[in-house]
Design a protein that fits this description.
Elements lengths: L1 E10 L2 E6 L11 H11 L1 H8 L9 E6 L8 E6 L4 E2 L3 H13 L6 E7 L2 E7 L19 E5 L4 E11 L2 E9 L3 E5 L11 H17 L12 E6 L6 E6 L11 H13 L9 E5 L4 E9 L2 E20 L10
Parallel strand pairs: 2-3, 4-6, 11-12, 13-14
Antiparallel strand pairs: 1-2, 1-16, 3-4, 4-5, 6-7, 7-8, 8-16, 9-10, 10-11, 12-13, 14-15, 15-16
Bound molecules: pyrrole-2-carboxylate.
Pyrrole-2-carboxylate binds next to α3 and α5.
Length: 322
């Protein structure tokens, strides 16, 4: 029997499964090097811990790995039902809140090495209880701001025709590649999930068919559909690479959106932008400029949900996932 400890959290409804230690060695290279080794030699571990029957398409996983960068306390590699992510905003918020729950971090700044660069998380002090019998004393701090790697817009107002309808989108990087669409004409709400999913999937397929990519021919594997809402500055439906929709506003997707807004002159440095997800959760984002690059910061809260041990019986025909 193989035993794999895990801790599950969710950030604005989107789950993160943290695997705090790996049962194999990934060497001493950078986190990007460790990801290459994982892809080459251990991809079945990803499907074992994340895919059905132990997990689901909705889960995002996080392997905690030693960082190579001496300024970082942790390294992390994010993954999903079909592969690996460059960065993950909700996952980093979930990771830091989970480490706080485990007593491994205190409020303050925590530097984390990811395959696409170093991000700086700030774990905020929990609010004080408001009085005897009032408020709930926080067991662990769970509000986190993630200062992301630089984000940028790569292409502007690119036409794509899906089912005889032409829409337009921006191609932007926020730690993953996104296609950001406004003129889709669809209702962005929970009663329309099937249509939103199918339409976004068709957009993604069409991007591939039309040869539209991110920089260096990178595949655009996330699609964002935006709409207005009275509850925030914008609401979005985000389709992830494995066809599950993001329950949270997507930290890397919000970063990409902030970069586009700034490039359009619609967001000032330091201005707070509230991005709502299709389930109603909200991230707050802002940008700063460093060395002429747009650096987004995204803030949200995560809650731990369960901790335990995954068991893999070597006789199980679906032990490595479906
Ligand atoms: O929050 O960056 C994010 C994210 C990426 C995929 C799912 N969530």
């Amino acid at each position: 029997m193989i035993r794999i400890p895990f801790l599950d959290s969710h950030t604005g409804g989107e789950p993160t499964r943290l695997i705090p230690s790996l049962p194999f060695n990934l060497g001493t290279g950078s986190v990007a090097d460790k990801l290459s080794t994982l892809k080459k030699d251990h991809d079945d571990f990803r499907t074992t811990v994340l895919n059905e029957p132990r997990g689901s398409d909705v889960l995002v996983g996080a392997y905690l790995v030693p960082p190579a960068d001496p300024t970082c306390q942790f390294g992390v590699i994010y993954f999903n039902n079909v592969g690996y992510l460059g960065m993950c905003g909700h996952g980093t918020i979930g990771l830091i809140a989970s480490l706080a729950y485990l007593g491994k971090v205190q409020p303050g700044v925590i530097r984390v090495e990811t395959p696409v660069g170093v991000v700086e998380a700030t774990l905020h002090n929990p609010p004080l209880p408001t009085g005897e019998g009032l408020g709930v004393r926080a067991e662990y701090p769970n509000k986190v701001s993630v200062k992301n790697i630089p984000a940028y817009r790569h292409l502007t107002h690119v036409p794509v025709t899906v089912d005889s309808k032409t829409i337009h989108g921006d191609v932007a990087w926020g730690g993953n590649w996104f296609f950001l669409v406004h003129d889709h004409g669809l209702d962005v709400n929970m009663s329309n999930l099937e249509t939103l999913t199918e339409f976004s999937w068709r957009v993604r397929e069409q991007l591939t068919a039309d040869g539209i990519t991110g920089a260096n021919s990178a595949e655009i594997d996330h699609v964002e559909l935006f709409a207005s809402t009275p509850e925030a500055d914008s609401k979005s439906f985000v389709l992830c690479p494995g066809k599950a929709y993001d329950r949270c506003p997507c930290g890397t997707g919000t970063s990409a959106k902030l970069a586009c807004l700034y490039s359009d002159g619609k967001l000032q440095v330091g201005q707070v932008w509230k991005q709502q997800s299709v389930v109603g959760s909200i991230f707050e984002g802002s940008i700063q400029i460093e060395d002429n690059r747009i650096i987004p910061t995204v803030t949200g809260e995560a809650w731990v949900m369960s901790e335990g041990t995954l068991l893999v019986d070597e006789r199980d025909p679906f032990g490595k996932g479906i």
